[in-house]
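Let us practice reading a record.
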Amino acid sequence: MRIYDTRLEDHRAIAEGTMAFDLAKPAGFIFKPGQAIDLVLINPPGTDADSTRHTFSIASAPFEERLTIATRMRDSAFKRTLKSLPIGAPILFEGPSGSLTLHNNRTRPAVMVAGGIGITPFVSILRQAAHDQLPQQLLLLYSNHRPEDAAFLAELQGLEEQNKRFRLLATMTQMSKSSQSWAGRSGPIDEALVHQVGHELVAPIFYLAGPPAMVESMRQTLNQADIDDDDIRSEEFYGY
């Protein structure tokens, strides 16, 4: 994979404890929606790999002029340094990598299951699908503790309005800890919900993204709902 020079163009909070970072997109850089890059700090806070580079899914779509990543801002040396970078600071990245991309058979629906910041590859996919007016049924099951934690939620609701082939089903699992109101679904993405959506769609392919424990649990839930492993694709977010 090639290493590219870029610079930080903007950063902002997009949910409680979550930030997005916009990077200049180098000329000639091509990626598929759902792929990732390795961000490499030019002046890392340490010499170990964890403080030098970090893998992030690309949240922006290929048609956009910038590259956007988003991350939970846990207290790591890498993320403290990333957050402190001034606008215009030079950064390196390597990529693209990853295979969590849409299947080519547009007659088969895609069901995307995201936990927390695992939403990022699906934001890229859904932005591009709306832009291209993709003739494919898309369903997103998006689980968070609270609305405050749900990155890109308002945008996803807007994309559902924009793309009639896309349906969003967001659910919150800890509304008792929220200070916001929520009129949507509460509770986990369970076997009953998977059965429900599975019966509404013909031969869907399932995509899973989130923390390793969530991905493994969701895979088991899908298996219990008679979804074959051949129809499941996944990406685990370690140390995000």
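A brief commentary: The two ends are 22 Å apart (CA to CA).
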